[in-house]
Write a structure and sequence with these properties.
The complex is a heterodimer of chains A (341) and B (305).
Chain A: H1 2-20, H2 31-52, H3 54-84, E1 86-87, E2 97-98, H4 102-108, H5 111-142, H6 148-160, H7 163-174, H8 181-189, H9 200-229, H10 232-240, H11 245-272, H12 277-282, H13 294-303, H14 308-340
Antiparallel strand pairs in A: 1-2
Chain B: H1 5-14, H2 16-47, H3 52-56, H4 71-76, H5 88-124, H6 134-143, H7 149-163, H8 169-193, H9 197-205, H10 210-239, H11 242-247, H12 255-265, H13 270-290, H14 292-300
Helix pairs in contact in B: 2-13, 5-8, 5-10, 8-10, 9-10, 10-14, 12-13
Classes of the chains: A mainly alpha (341), B mainly alpha (305).
């Protein structure tokens, strides 16, 4: 069985060679390679069971997911690093050309990319405000109220809706300059010229609001679960000791909720770093790139300019930044939680 | 929930005035936020029944402010009087709708199958592939969560063209599976950890194989968790826009892409956009109301220990 897997590996290798070097016996597309990979995966699975018995059966639980993820992530990422080092514009006929680190230097000098990164910092900071609101809502839902289930379903609703539909519903119609209700309301309050998306600062805030509207329920639900898991005795003891509600919250509830809070905020930040669809559909980065997130900027780099090489370089740089940032964040968060408790 | 009734009484005794004030504040805040959550939805649904005049004059309440009209739905071919006529827009819409259904159900199912197998393996057995231990493998899976879609999008665009998967449902399904797999593994690991190992040990003693024990004993217990993971995965796949916008053009386009392409080209045609948006969010709104329990279960898995 091990022989069979080896043989399959060899055919894949051979096929790659055929396709790239000599165009004689190769197939029309690379699709057979995919089939070969699947077949090879199956063969490995069978081989594991036959050669290693029970251990093999155990390995079989993990193998499909592992093979799938490796094929879908490792290969494209490596390929991506290669594309990032080429000058490759899909609309030009010259095709792919290796140009070393040129894209990298171009990136360092690109003010729009820097602006997009700066926006990401702003957008991530907005998570803290979302957190405060989400915590407040979780407290409300955890209070002694009637119709709790109704409010929970209603508060959860925005999370279910597709961000693209939401960006039309809110961004393009509610906040519409001429007769959107939000604009009308703003005029009533006293904002003479409620153009939500034409001034860079209000445009950023509007994007944050839209995104917050969709994702606040996510943090709210996690925090609510945390509140409900908290032991009643501690709160009871605080009350007996004569603590006011305000003191109880800051000295008992909040510290106890810290681990859940940190998890919720970190997960939210991870989702925030992927922010793209709202910006693409509402402002497409405008006015003048002011609202661009990194993802939406790269999206347009590809869609409008077909600049695959440079876009990939930007994406890879972003990946490195994210990995460093999230690693630091996780370290910082665990130390933070330990210090407080 | 009922535990708090004691505090309730206690605070009532303490001072009736402040009790009433706090009640008013709590319900006021709840109502306010419920309004914020629901108004955009209300606005979209009513707008789909408006005519141009009603939109420009900002009419809000049907039958009082304006006379509802099927205009928006007629342009989609989904109003009562046009439902039996042929309509290219409706065919287009149904095609996109089916694409969305097939890709999200397909991806969620695939992710559930391979994800729960992997999660089960990781919670029950010790592995080492080369120098990788269980923790490293788990971390490898979960770390996919931070991978932003842009990083994969462009390489996949090129690779899919080579492999012939560009603009196909299969291509989207594979990508979406990758996208939701970490979440599924996260939820299912939590789920399997809560099932006592003794159950399987007893089954093994009774002569079941490892896989037999998994299918006959563990799976039925873990079913609610699987449903929760499946629904959460469904929601994420249904709403996904980025990959769909880049990797599909005519055949495999999904609902969000259709909605987005319409927003770009709209004039003042609000009613048909509103009808389209309503149709796009309706399935998930129904799921959200009916299966809220599972959604919450999925989202809170592993958050509280």
């Amino acid at each position: 069985m091990a022989l069979a897997t080896l043989g399959l590996l060899a055919t894949i290798a051979l096929q790659i060679l055929y396709k790239t070097e000599v165009d004689t016996i190769g197939f029309e597309t690379w699709r057979p390679v995919v089939y070969a990979y699947v077949l090879w995966g199956v063969a490995i699975g069978i081989g594991q069971v036959l050669t290693r018995g029970e251990d093999g059966q155990r390995a079989l639980f993990l193998l499909p997911a592992l093979l799938f993820t490796i094929a879908m992530v490792i290969f494209p990422t490596l390929f991506g690093f290669y594309i990032a080092l080429t000058d490759w514009n899909l609309s030009s006929f010259s095709g792919r050309r290796f140009n070393g680190l040129d894209n990298f230097w171009q990136m360092l000098a690109d003010p729009y990319y820097r602006n997009a990164l700066f926006n990401m910092v702003l957008y991530v900071l907005a998570v803290l405000v979302e957190y405060v609101i989400a915590f407040g809502l979780a407290l409300l839902l955890n209070a002694q109220i009637r119709a709790r289930k109704f409010f929970r379903v209603v508060f959860l609703m925005p999370l279910m809706l597709s961000p693209v539909a939401v960006s039309w519903m809110i961004g393009k119609s509610l906040m519409e300059y001429r007769f959107g209700p939000a604009a009308t309301l703003a005029r009533h309050i006293g904002w003479e010229d409620p153009a939500f998306f034409s001034n860079p600062i209000t445009a950023r805030i509007s994007i944050m609001l839209l995104d917050a509207w969709t994702f606040i329920p996510f943090m709210m639900i996690m925090l609510l679960a945390g509140l409900q898991a908290m032991s009643r005795e501690v709160l009871e003891a605080a009350r007996v000791d004569g603590a006011t509600a305000w003191q109880t919250f800051w000295q008992v509830t909040f510290p106890l909720m810290l681990p859940v809070s940190v998890t919720a905020v970190i997960l939210r930040i991870i989702f925030k770093l992927k922010l793209a669809d709202i910006i693409i559909t509402v402002t497409s980065g405008g006015p003048g790139g002011a609202t661009d997130s990194v993802s939406s900027f790269i999206y347009r780099e590809y869609r409008d300019r077909s600049n695959v090489g440079y876009g990939t370089m930007l994406a890879m740089a972003y990946l490195v930044i994210i990995v460093v940032f999230v690693t630091w964040l996780l370290k910082f968060a665990s130390r933070f939680v330990r210090n407080v408790n | 929930m009922s535990v708090q009734t004691t505090d309730y009484v206690a605070s009532e005794i303490r001072s009736p005035a402040s009790f009433v004030a706090s009640r008013v504040f709590i319900y006021g805040a709840l109502a306010f936020w419920a309004f914020i959550c629901l108004f955009p939805i209300y606005w979209t649904i009513t707008t789909s029944f408006k005519t141009a005049v009603d939109v420009t004059q900002g009419h809000l309440i049907p039958f009082v402010d304006f006379q509802p009209d099927w205009k928006g739905w007629r342009s989609l071919g989904l109003s009562p009087d046009s439902i039996f006529q042929t309509s290219t827009v409706r065919d287009e819409f149904l095609k996109r709708f089916m694409n969305s259904v097939i890709t999200s159900v397909g991806a969620s199912s695939l992710a559930i199958v391979i994800g729960s197998l992997a999660a089960y393996g990781l919670t029950r057995y010790r592995y080492h592939f080369a120098w990788f231990k269980n923790e490293d493998i788990s971390f490898f899976f979960l770390s996919q969560l931070i991978l932003p879609p842009v990083v994969l999008a462009l390489p996949f665009l090129v690779l899919y063209r080579e492999v012939g998967l560009l603009d196909t449902r299969v291509g989207l399904i594979l990508l979406y599976t990758l996208m939701v797999l970490p979440i599924v593994i996260w939820i299912m690991r939590d789920q399997f950890n809560s099932i006592p190992v003794e159950l399987e040990e007893a089954a093994l003693v009774d002569g079941l194989s490892i896989w037999g024990a998994f299918f006959r004993i563990v799976m039925p217990i873990a079913l609610p968790g699987m449903v929760a993971a499946f629904i959460l995965a469904m929601v994420l796949c249904w709403n996904e826009y980025f990959f769909a916008a880049l990797l599909t053009s005519t055949d495999a386009k999904t609902i969000p892409v259709m909605v987005a392409s319409q927003t770009g080209s709209q004039g003042i045609n609000w009613w048909s956009m509103a009808a389209l948006a309503t149709a796009a969010i309706a399935p998930l709104a129904v799921i959200g109301i009916a299966l809220e329990r599972y959604l919450i279960m999925g989202m809170t898995a592993g958050a509280v220990k």
